[in-house]
Structures are given as structure tokens and as C-alpha cells.
């Protein structure tokens, strides 16, 4: 708003005023008056810059994170906090609750027994970084009889603190879609706040009056584990006390939680390579390009009726892979058409061939 109020502009305005109103005074920039006005113009320019900053911080669309959080708090909205990943550990023996292990740069602590030799472990590092790490665990203390220890899967992904733009979107959504007493907006708002949930779709009266189906995707935008579905179910509407209001759901709402399903996407194309390149040279880059595209689609699942995997998008992304000069004849699951998924399915890469 005050971008034009620079030091030079203010200084020139002040000197022009002197020349107009006091023509007998020395108005040279190197004169006493010019030297005296200079620091005043500098201070005023700084003041205008700070006023501009205050204006930006006063409105949600331009506020920085600190002031956006304060603005959102006025509507009872807070950034989703970071959480710890929960993983499945498989051992050749039973281990004690509280035993600690390490994998790569992360430490884990045993928190719950699932079955003989199988336990839940919680990562001691908060956030999403540990989500991609599975493999051999090393005990931090000697455990007699321990021969094998492995993380086999991530049960509940860890999450980073909500990003600024996501919080900004949530603030504006709260203005246009009022959540109240178990309506769809209320369910979406509360379910999306739960640890491990990356998005959801709500289906009211899906099995008669008073029934609600909640379909979720995990915070890594993958099919959720049975353990995550169970945790979310107990937080929304515990099965043994269904409809009694012991969870997030209001009294009388019988809620069923389910997860998205995977649809395998097999891709075949006729690829022309640069001299010196072959399929095996660029396979990993092709797979990454496809994975990135499918992840983008999965992130939009809760906003779309049904996802569409498009041949044009696949070819466009593969043409950006170093070593590829042309691509044609792309098929998805053997068909030369876009793949339209079911409303609660997300795409996962299958085979890739040329």
C-alpha cells in the first residue's frame, strides 16, 4: 500500500515543499537543510515500511505464520501438531515394553505387544522423516537371546507440524463452510485433525438413518493400515459403544471407518532414447516420475469424486526424464485410455515397461 513511500520519494517531497513554501532558504541537497531533512526522510520511510508490514500481518491472506496462527486461533483453529511414527517390530523372542532400538538415525521404544514376537514401537524422533525407514533394528542395550529384530511396516505415519499454507486454507474453509453438531464439515474438520490421517470423505446415511461412513487416507497419502483404521474408529465412535457419543461422533451417530483402496497402475510405452541410453539406465527415474504423479493424484483424493490417471500426464512427465527424447503408444493396464478410479481408490505403481 505504501510501496511508493521510499526514502528518495519522501526526501524529494520534503525538499519540494521547502522550495515552494520557503523560496529564500537554501534547498540544495548538500546544504544544511538538505542534510537535516535526510535522516527525517529515512525514519519516515522506515515507518511506512513497518506500517505496510502491519497491514500484511493483519489479514489472513498475507499474514506470516506467526500472525496467521494468532488469526486462526480467533476461530478456534490451530496448526496440526507434529506426531511420532508408530511401527511394527518383529523379533525372534518376546522383548520387554520400554526396550529401545535404533535404525539408521532414529531410535524406537517398544510400547505395546501385538502377538508373540510382534510389537508396536514408537519413534523417538517427531515428524514424517522416519516414515520411509524399515529394516534391521539394533538394540541399544544387550538383550539375551535376541537374534533378529526388524521394522516390517509403518502402522501410523508420523506427521510434521501443519504447513503454513495448509493452515491458511483451513482458516478460509472455516469461513465458507460452517462446521456444527456432526454435519459433514464438522466431521471433516475433526477427522482431518486426527494423527495419521491425511484426508477423508464423509458419507451420511450410507446404511440407513443415523449411519455415517468415514473413508480415510493416511498422512503419507497411502492406504491406511488396519491399526490406523482401528485407532481412528475408536476416536470417532468406539465399536463397543457405537452411537453412544463416547467419541467425536454425536450421540445417535453410528460411524464406520474404512480406508482407501489401492488400484494398481501398469504402464507400457514405446520410448525413444538419446544415444547411449537404454531403459535400464533410466528405469529408476521413470519410476520416480510416475510415483510423483500418482502421489499428486492421491493428495487430491479427498477433493475429487474420482481420480483419473491420464496418459497425457504420464507422457509429459516421462519426456522430462533425462535420456528420453520421445514417447508414444502409452497404455494403462493394457488400455489406450485414461484410467478412471473408483471414488475411494488411489493409484499405486505396478509394472513399467517399454
From TrEMBL:
Residues 179-258 form the Baseplate J-like central domain. The lineage of its organism: Bacteria, Bacillati, Bacillota, Clostridia, Lachnospirales. Belongs to the Mu gp47/PBSX XkdT family. It comes from the Bacteria. InterPro entries: Baseplate_J-like_C, Baseplate_J_M, Phage_Baseplate_Assmbl_Protein. This is Uncharacterized phage protein gp47/JayE. Coiled coil: none annotated. Residues 265-353 form the Baseplate J-like C-terminal domain.
Amino acid at each position: 500500500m505504501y510501496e511508493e513511500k521510499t526514502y528518495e520519494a519522501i526526501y524529494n517531497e520534503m525538499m519540494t515543499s521547502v522550495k515552494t513554501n520557503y523560496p529564500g532558504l537554501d534547498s540544495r541537497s548538500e546544504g544544511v537543510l538538505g542534510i537535516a531533512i535526510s535522516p527525517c526522510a529515512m525514519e519516515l520511510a522506515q515507518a511506512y515500511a513497518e506500517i505496510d508490514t502491519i497491514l500484511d500481518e493483519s489479514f489472513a491472506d498475507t499474514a506470516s505464520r506467526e500472525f496467521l496462527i494468532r488469526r486462526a486461533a480467533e476461530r478456534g483453529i490451530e496448526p496440526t501438531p507434529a506426531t511420532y511414527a508408530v511401527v511394527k517390530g518383529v523379533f525372534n523372542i518376546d522383548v520387554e515394553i520400554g526396550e529401545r532400538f535404533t535404525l539408521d538415525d532414529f531410535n524406537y521404544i517398544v510400547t505395546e505387544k501385538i502377538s508373540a514376537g510382534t510389537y508396536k514401537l514408537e519413534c523417538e524422533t517427531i515428524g514424517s522423516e522416519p516414515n520411509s525407514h524399515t529394516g534391521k533394528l539394533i538394540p541399544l542395550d544387550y538383550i539375551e537371546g535376541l537374534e533378529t529384530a526388524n521394522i516390517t511396516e509403518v502402522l501410523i505415519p508420523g506427521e510434521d507440524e501443519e504447513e503454513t499454507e495448509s493452515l491458511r486454507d483451513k482458516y478460509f474453509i472455516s469461513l465458507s463452510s460452517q462446521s456444527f453438531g456432526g454435519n459433514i464439515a464438522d466431521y471433516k474438520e475433526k477427522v482431518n485433525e486426527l494423527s495419521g490421517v491425511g484426508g477423508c470423505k464423509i458419507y451420511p446415511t450410507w446404511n440407513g438413518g443415523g449411519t455415517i461412513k468415514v473413508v480415510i487416507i493416511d498422512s503419507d497419502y497411502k492406504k491406511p493400515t488396519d491399526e490406523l483404521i482401528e485407532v481412528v474408529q475408536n476416536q470417532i465412535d468406539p465399536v463397543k459403544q457405537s452411537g453412544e457419543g463416547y467419541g467425536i461422533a454425536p450421540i445417535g451417530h453410528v460411524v464406520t471407518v474404512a480406508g482407501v483402496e489401492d488400484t494398481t497402475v501398469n504402464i507400457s510405452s514405446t520410448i525413444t532414447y538419446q544415444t547411449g541410453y537404454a531403459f535400464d539406465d533410466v528405469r529408476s527415474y521413470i519410476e520416480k516420475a510416475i510415483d510423483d504423479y500418482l502421489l499428486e493424484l492421491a493428495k487430491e483424493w479427498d477433493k475429487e469424486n474420482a481420480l483419473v490417471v491420464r496418459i497425457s500426464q504420464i507422457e509429459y512427465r516421462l519426456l522430462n526424464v533425462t535420456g528420453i527424447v520421445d514417447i508414444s503408444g502409452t497404455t494403462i493396464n493394457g488400455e489406450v485410455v485414461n484410467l478412471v478410479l473408483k471414488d475411494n481408490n488411489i493409484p499405486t505403481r505396478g509394472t513399467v515397461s517399454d
